[in-house]
Write a structure and sequence with these properties.
Low-confidence stretches: none
CATH superfamily: P-loop containing nucleotide triphosphate hydrolases
Helix content: 40-55%
Mean pLDDT: 88
Strand order of the largest sheet: 2-3-1-4-5
Number of strands: 5
Structural class: alpha/beta
């Protein structure tokens, strides 16, 4: 019963106090792109780079989340939306804790990313489009998912029989076709550093 819920957010430490303690501005960096585009690998590298440079960040990855908090969800449109809703709410908790949160999710539609941005807050949501052509993602196929999708063993697979809508105006677009992981991480770090740095 909602009338019995009494949040205590106003009694807790303020986000600014936590940011001051950590020496950074908290933001949610939301990586989107096809399966195999390099989202998770780049997010992992960025987390390490930020840590080395004195920042405190946490990666939230699609597969990791689906083995834990979202292990009861499938891949229907309704479940995909609920997956994003939950992770957006978790990201907001991290945000208010002063942490730089790196989210790696396909989040295939413009509407579903807008939904995430609405929960997190527009000024704190940095969307990074990992733009890797489908043929390269499919050639990598590190998880063997494209092969299964082509055989019809996986239904509703993004890029094969379910659409991916590229961001129209992302905060940052990274074309990885001719970039190493190290260079990709460096480019995104250089972009977000002024955003997360305390003045």
């Amino acid at each position: 019963m909602k009338e019995n819920i009494h949040p205590i957010f106003n009694k807790l430490l303020k986000r600014e106090e936590r940011e001051d303690r950590l020496g950074q501005k908290s933001k949610v960096v939301w990586f989107t792109g096809l399966s195999g585009s390099g989202k998770s690998t780049i997010a992992e590298g960025l987390e390490k780079k930020l840590f080395q440079e004195g920042f405190f960040a946490q990666v939230l990855d699609g597969d990791n989340i689906r083995t834990g908090i979202n292990n009861n969800l499938g891949f229907s449109l309704e479940d995909r939306r609920e997956n994003i809703r939950r992770i957006s709410e978790v990201s907001k908790l991290y945000l208010n804790s002063g942490i730089i949160t790196l989210c790696s999710f396909i989040s295939p539609t413009i509407e579903i990313r807008k939904f995430a941005k609405t929960i997190i807050g527009e000024k704190d949501f940095i969307d990074i489009y990992i733009n890797t052509p489908l043929d390269i993602c499919e050639a990598r196929d590190v998880k063997g998912l494209y092969k299964k999708a082509r055989k019809g063993e996986i239904k509703g697979f993004t890029g094969i029989d379910s659409p991916y809508e590229a961001p129209i105006n992302p905060s940052y677009e990274l074309k990885t076709e001719e970039l190493s992981v190290e260079k990709s991480v460096e480019k995104i770090y250089d972009f977000i550093k002024p955003i997360v740095q305390l003045k």
